[in-house]
Amino acid sequence: MTELSTDRRQPEMPATRWGDPAEAGPLPDSVRGLVGMVFPLGDTPAREDVTVPAPALAAELLDSLRSLLGEEQVIVDDEIRRVRTRGKSTPDLLRQRAGDLSDAPDVVVRPRGHDEVQALLGWAAEHRVAVTPFGGGTAVTGGLAVDRAGFAGVVSLDLGGMRRLLSVDPVSSTAVLEPGLRGPEAEALLAEQGLMLGHYPQSFEFASIGGFAVTRSSGQSSAGYGRFDSMVVGLRVATPSGDVRLGSSPANASGPDLRELFLGSEGAFGVITEVTVRVRPLPEVKVYEGWHWPSFAAGADAMRALAQSDLLPTVLRLSDENETAINLARPDAIGGEGSAGSVASGGCLMIAGYEGTPEAVAAKQAAVTAALEKLGGTALGPEPGESWSEGRFAAPYLRDSLLDVGVLVETLETATFWSKRDELYRAVSAALTETLGEGTLVLCHISHVYATGCSLYFTVATEGGEQPLERWLPAKAAACEAIVACGAAISHHHAVGTDHKPYLAAEIGEVGVAALRAVKAALDPQGVLNPGVLIP
Amino acid sequence: MTELSTDRRQPEMPATRWGDPAEAGPLPDSVRGLVGMVFPLGDTPAREDVTVPAPALAAELLDSLRSLLGEEQVIVDDEIRRVRTRGKSTPDLLRQRAGDLSDAPDVVVRPRGHDEVQALLGWAAEHRVAVTPFGGGTAVTGGLAVDRAGFAGVVSLDLGGMRRLLSVDPVSSTAVLEPGLRGPEAEALLAEQGLMLGHYPQSFEFASIGGFAVTRSSGQSSAGYGRFDSMVVGLRVATPSGDVRLGSSPANASGPDLRELFLGSEGAFGVITEVTVRVRPLPEVKVYEGWHWPSFAAGADAMRALAQSDLLPTVLRLSDENETAINLARPDAIGGEGSAGSVASGGCLMIAGYEGTPEAVAAKQAAVTAALEKLGGTALGPEPGESWSEGRFAAPYLRDSLLDVGVLVETLETATFWSKRDELYRAVSAALTETLGEGTLVLCHISHVYATGCSLYFTVATEGGEQPLERWLPAKAAACEAIVACGAAISHHHAVGTDHKPYLAAEIGEVGVAALRAVKAALDPQGVLNPGVLIP
C-alpha cells in the first residue's frame, strides 16, 4: 500500500473557478483584443462576498456523526462547504459566481477508507440523511446537485481522505486504487513502479478515480488506451445494503456483468471504495502530430476507416472547420506561418498521437501515416501536435477568463453511429445557433472513435448578456432534444447527473428506467444516495 | 431484410446426441483401439424407446395460445418436445440417453418476430406459464432446465422462426440479426454482402445469435474479434413489462450500460429479439500455425506478454502437456513424424491464427512471430494450425461416440487473472482427479486471453461406470468449489444456468444477487421467464 504524501496532492479548486488558483488569471491582452472583435466585453467578476447557508443538519446528528467517524472527519467549515457545492459546468459556475449557494451540503465528511464509508452509509440510511459522494468536484452535468427534499440534511462524502494505491499486481498488470486519488496523483504513484493508467480527460488534473468510474469517463488517449470503464477490471462498492466486490476475472459469463451496473451509476447505487484497473508500462516515446483534411467529413471518414481496420493511434481527434479556425487564431499564431499554415485557408486539423516503445510507435505511426495519406490527409508534422499537447488541459481556465468579461462559454457532447454522424452534427449545431442567435460560435470536435461510431464534442461561445444562465439553459435543452430526436447518446463521457435526467427515459426506455429504479430500491432502500441524480 | 431460405437452415440436433445426425457415427476402430488402452470399453447406447410425458398445459390454455399466435406456431409434437428438452452438457445427454424426459416442455411455440414474442410473454404472465427461450439448444450449464413448480406449464419459446438478417449499416459496420439464426446461417447471410461477424465458439454450427448474447459466449477468434458481448452494440428485448431498445451509440455515459444487464441474462429478464452487432469485411487470408513451448507455463507467459503489449493474433490457444499429448495421439499421427513431431517428446502446442487482408496478416504475423521467438517458442509451421482448424468443431461428436462405449467425457471452464492462473489450474485439476480417481485424464487449454488474465478450459475423460451421471456430479461440484475458493469465474463463456447457480453468490456477493433479483422482479413480476435459471 502506497500513501500519497500530503505535499504531492493536487490543490483544491476554488468555489467559483476551475483549477489551480495559481494558474488562473485574466485574459491576456492579446486574446482580449481578439475576443473583443467577436463579442462585446464587459466586467462580470464572481461575487466572493457570499454567505453559505447555515447547516440544516440537527446538532445531535452532527454529534452522532462525530462519534461514528471521529471529530476530524466531520467538517462544517463554511468555505469547505462552499467549494463542495455543485461541480464545474458553466451553469454551476454561473450560480456560484452569482453567490447562489442553495445547493451547499450541510456537512463535509472525509472517511479514511472503505469501512468508514460503509459506516457512514449505515448512519445515513438510519437517519435519512442524503449523501453525495464528492471526488474531484469536476462534475459537469449536475451530479452533485442533490435534491434534499424529505431528508434530514445533506452530507458531502469527500473522498479526498482515500488517496492510496492499495496494491499492484505486476503479473496481471493491475492496480487497486482508492477513489479519491486525482488523475495526476494516481499516475504519480503508478509511475514510481514504472506503470501508468493512461486516462487523460480534460479534467485530468482535478478529477478523481472514483469520478472517472461512476461517470464512465473517457480520456484523450481513448483510441489507444480505451475508455475508463474498459480499464476497470474490479470494483469494491459500499451500499446501504452492504458491500460488494466485483471482478473475478477480466471477463466472464457469470451472469450480467455487474461491474457495468456500478460504472456509470453516479453514486446512486453505492460508493465505489476501490477500483482495480489495468495498468501499462510507462511509454518510452510520445509523438503527437497534425494532419490537414479538406473538410470535417473527410477527416471523420478517415477516422472511421482507421477504427474499422483496427488501426488506431493512441490519440486521435479532429476539429471541425470552426474549431480549426478558432484554434489557429491563437495570438501567438496570428500572422505567422508555422507548420499549421497550410490549414489557414480552411479545412480541418486532426491530431494523431503515438505512445509506447520506440518500435511500437514507429510501426504504428508508419501504418497510420500510410493509411491517412491514402485517404487524402496532409501531414503537418509535430508542431500542431505539440501545441495541442501543451494546452490539452487549459480550456477550463480560458472559460473562467471569458466568463469574467461576460462571454458565455460551455461545452456538451454526445455519441452516435457513423452513419448518423453528419445528421447529429447538423442537428445539434442548428439547435444551438437557432436558440442563441446570431454571433454565436459553435465549434465541434471528434475525440473518441469506435469501429461503429464516434463522439461529437461541441463548444459554444456567445454573448453572456444580463442573464447568462437563463440564456444558456434553453440552448442546452434544445441541444438535448436534438440529440434525443437523432437517437444518439445524451452523454458520451460526462454522465446523466441532474441536467440530462429528463432525457434518459427517451434513451433507455421505460423498461430501462424500471431496471435502474429496481436496483436503486434494492441497494439503497431509503434512497439516501445522491437523491435526484441519474434516475428519473 | 434478408430471409434465410429453408434449405440453408442448419439441421436439427437429435435428442440424445450433438450435431448433424449425418456426421455422427461410432468410434473409428483405430480410435477405439487407442481409447481401449486407457479405459475399459462397454456398450452403452442411448435409449430411444422413451415416452415423452403428456403435456401438462391445460387444453384451454393451448387453445388460447393457438388463437394468439396461430395454429402453426404452437407445436405439441412429442419428438419436437423431446429435442427441446435440456441442452447438450454431458449430464443433459446422460439424462436424455437414459430416457429421463422429466424436463420436457409442454408445448413448443415458434413466434415469427418481436411482436409475437411480446404477445407470448403477456399471455404467459397472465396465465402464469413458464417460458424458456430455446435458440440452438446447445446450452451446457442447465439453462434450459426450468423449475416448473408453481406454474401452469412450460412453454419452449423456439426462436427458430426468427432467422432474418433485418438490416445492414455498411457505414457504421453494423448488422441487425434475429436471435434464432445459427452461427453458420448468420455468417452466410452476412457473407452475401462481403461481411462477417467472426464469432466461432465450438458450438458455432448449432448455437444461435440470441444464445451467444444471453450467455456471454466467447469464440475461438476472441483474441482478434473479441467476445460476443464486445461485438454487440444494440439489443431489442421483449419483457413481460414491455419492450426496450438499447444502444444509442457504440459507448456512452448515459448511466449504467444496460446492454450489459441483458447480455448474460440467460432469458431471465427478457427475450432478446434483435441483436445489433459490429461486422467486418470477410478476411481475404486465413493463416493458422503451430508453436511449441517447453511447458504450459512458458506458453502461458508468452500469451500474457502478447496480450499485455496489445499484440494479439486472431486466434491464440495453448494446450497443456496432457492435452498436447492426447491431441498428438491421433491415429493418423501415430508413428508418423509430421511437423508436430518436435512436440512428441513433451511440451505444449500453441495455435496462432491470423485473418484479414494480406498486408494486415503479414504485418501481424511478422510482429507476433518475432515476439514469440524472443519469448522462447519454436515455430512448427502451418500443419498443426490447419489440423486444428479442420477439427475445430468436432469434439462434441467424439464425446457422443465415447459415451456410446462407456467413457465419460465432459468439459468445464473458468477465468482468472494472470497471477492466479497456475493456482487455479492446479486446484481445478486436483479437484477433478481426486474426485474421479486414478485413470482419469484431465486436459486443459487456454483459448481466451486478455491483458489482465485468461480462461482455462478443462476436458475430463474417465471411466463412466454403471452410473456415469452420479460419478460426474461430485467431480463437477468439487471443481466449482475449487474455482470459488480461488476467487475465479464460475464460467468464462458458458453462463450460470442451473448448474452454476449455487456458486454465483460467492462470486457476485449478496448485494449482486439482490440487484439481479430486483431487476427480475421489476421486469418479470410473475417470474415466468426461465424460472430457476441464473438467479439464486
UniProtKB/TrEMBL annotation, chains A, B:
Protein name: Alkyldihydroxyacetonephosphate synthase
Active-site annotation: Y457 (proton donor/acceptor)
Keyword annotations from UniProtKB, A to Z: FAD, Flavoprotein, Transferase
Obligatory cofactor(s): FAD
Site positions (Important for enzyme activity): R317
Region listing for Disordered, in residue ranges: 1-29
InterPro entries with a match to the protein in the record: Alkyl-DHAP_Synthase, FAD-bd_oxidored_4_C, FAD-bd_PCMH, FAD-bd_PCMH-like_sf, FAD-bd_PCMH_sub2, FAD-linked_Oxase-like_C, Oxid_FAD_bind_N, Vanillyl_alc_oxidase_C-sub2
EC number, as in UniProt: 2.5.1.26
Source organism per UniProt: Nocardioides thalensis
Annotated FAD binding sites: T215, R216, S217, S218, E266, G267, A268, F269, G270, V271, I272
Binding locations of substrate: R399
Protein family (similarity comment): Belongs to the FAD-binding oxidoreductase/transferase type 4 family.
Signal peptide boundaries: none
